[in-house]
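re: ur msg from earlier - yeah i can do the thymidine-5'-triphosphate complex, just paste it... oh wait u already did. ok heres what im feeding in:
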Amino acid sequence: MQRVIIHADMDYFYAAIEEREDPSLKGKAVVVCMYSNRGEEGGAVSTCNYVARDAGIRSAMPCRQAKSLDPDAVFLPVRKHFYEEVSASVMEILRSSADSEESFEKISIDEAFLEITRSSESDFDNAREIGMRIKEEVKDRERITCSIGIGPNKLIAKMASSFQKPDGITVVRPEDMEDFLRPMPVNKLWGIGKVTGNKLAEMGIKTIGDLGEHDIMELISVFGKNRGTWLKQAASGIDATPVQERTASDQIGRMASLMHDTRDEEMIFSLLEELAVDVLSRARSRKAGFRSVTVTVILSDFKMSTKSRTFSHPVSDMESLHGSAKEIMQQFLEETTLNFRRIGVRVGSLHEMTGQKTLFDF
Ligand code: TTP
Ligand code: CA
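and the outut:
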């Protein structure tokens, strides 16, 4: 079956979140800075919005240099905890759009691959619609934009997402792969860094097309067998690596935001129950029992805490899951006076329950 892969990449992620939080920033150059212990003078640019990029400002540039390029730009400090929370919400949207839990792969705070071979029925028009839906959902729920690339493998999807940025969507069908790659500068090929790029330039290889036509034996003699073969294949858009969850697939969990920051127990416990029901139904559809239950809370100061309970043997019933989740939540409520912002429930140490009846089967 023809694989269909999506790569989603949030646009100017940290700066987009800052823009969303403060509407007065709209239209201004916004630069998010990682300040060092030397204070405002010593920092480096983490990222910036596209207005700032027009002035030549870039990630990793000293903040001082950014300031000289655009003295009117607004400089803000990195708020990593906050961005991680937005990232978790975005990743939930993306994960739920993949064919299954396992066909989702987060690769950074704001990028992920999703396999949609099944849900698109291997049709690239259907795939585009799925991509558009994801963009809308991210915009509706998180009020930020993203760029989407769709292709027959991860390499093409990844390169397609950066083809039209920001807020773009690019679909590259198998038959268009080589035309898509051929004219691009060779250092745009995903996986080629500075060192390889420089070596290729010395060899007179400027475009991906040049690389694809280059003698494979010469590539192998310069880069070694593995790397040389990879270069030749990648230049033709060949990539068979699977989309694979990198974090432990030994867990099933869900998080959600409360309607607003609150300590209202009825609101918190009813959301907790909803999450527990969802997690349990996913565990059951995987025929998995579990030995641990973890509850995560994010408080109004964006700090995240987790607590777990472990059972001596695998369980798979609602009472074990929901009962322990409620106990843990009660403990969190007693330990803090802050409002709750988001909560999550997760089960871990999964055990296969095939052949065994669970309480639900009776
Ligand atoms: P990127 O996806 O590389 O960049 P971006 O989302 O800001 O912009 P683009 O629209 O081009 O995708 O990185 C994601 C976030 O990671 C970025 O918002 C800030 C952080 N980051 C750094 O802190 N330092 C860096 O050097 C880079 C490249 C990113
Ligand atoms: Ca990004």
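cool cool. Residues 9-14, 46-47, 59-60, 109-110, 165-166 surround thymidine-5'-triphosphate (ligand 1) (CB under 6 Å). ping me if u need the other ligands too
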